[in-house]
Amino acid sequence: MDKYTSLKDSIRFMEKNATDNTVKKIVKQSDKEHQKNSKKQWIITGVLAVVISIITLIFWRRKNKNLHKKYEEMISKINSRKENSSIKSLEIIRNNETKGSIRIPEDTVKSLLEKLEKFEASEKYLRKDASLTWLANNLNTNTKYLSEIIKIEKGKNFSNYINGLRINFIVDKLYNDPKYREYKINHLVEENGFVTHKVFLAAFKNEYGVTPSYFIEKLKVSEQLNKAHIST
Predict the structure, then answer these.
(1) What is d(CA 61, CA 54) in angstroms, rounded to the nearest whole number?
(2) Along the chain (232 residues), what's the average pLDDT of each consecutive run of 10 residues?
(3) Distance from C-alpha of 197 to C-alpha of 213, rounded to nearest angstrom
(4) Domain 85-231, what architecture?
(5) Residue 211 · residue 171 · CB < 8 Å
(6) Which alpha helices (DSSP H) does 125-178 contain, by range?
(7) pTM of the full predicted structure?
(8) Ramachandran sector of residue 196 (left: φ over 0; alpha: ψ -120 to 50; beta: rest)
(9) Is 95 exposed, middle or buried (0-12, 13-18, 19+ CB in 10 A)?
């Protein structure tokens, strides 16, 4: 019985060792496979990160290129506005005859164009209460005629027309007067007759395709480059 018990214990010990070795082999094999998979995952993750970075860089460069192009177009518009400030009355009248949905007498068209030119020069469009009715009353005309003339001449509705004048005003200020570039956006909003910050940003981007912050930043960089060029 002692020998039987000893033999039985030996068998159990051998079976246990065999089982432990098998388990160890399985675990070791699993660890190797896990390490291989981890390496593959790291490699795949690294490749994806590189690809995403390259794509992001391409889009970033393209976006910057487009923004810079719009900035250059802004500068061109600012300079061209100074050169072409006169209104082509005859062309507007011709457009009114061919495209206008409302027939407006020729003398009324001329009169309204002259009054609009004076209105734009007076900077009354900066008033927060500027509306189509208010402007029509000030120009001694009706809202239908005024709205039609603005649509034909500017290709805009009244709201976009007024906002465009306000944006052009602040753009000229930012371009010609460096102190305006130090003002906060909220101050520019208040000074230009806009009711909210959101409307100002939307109107600015609608008019020129860039944000006021981007325009100010580019002007500052350009100013620094000019100073460096002069000093050298």
Answers:
(1) 11
(2) 74 68 71 74 79 73 74 76 49 48 83 92 91 94 93 90 94 92 90 90 92 92 80 65
(3) 13
(4) Orthogonal Bundle (1.10)
(5) no
(6) 132-138, 143-154, 158-176
(7) 0.65
(8) beta
(9) middle
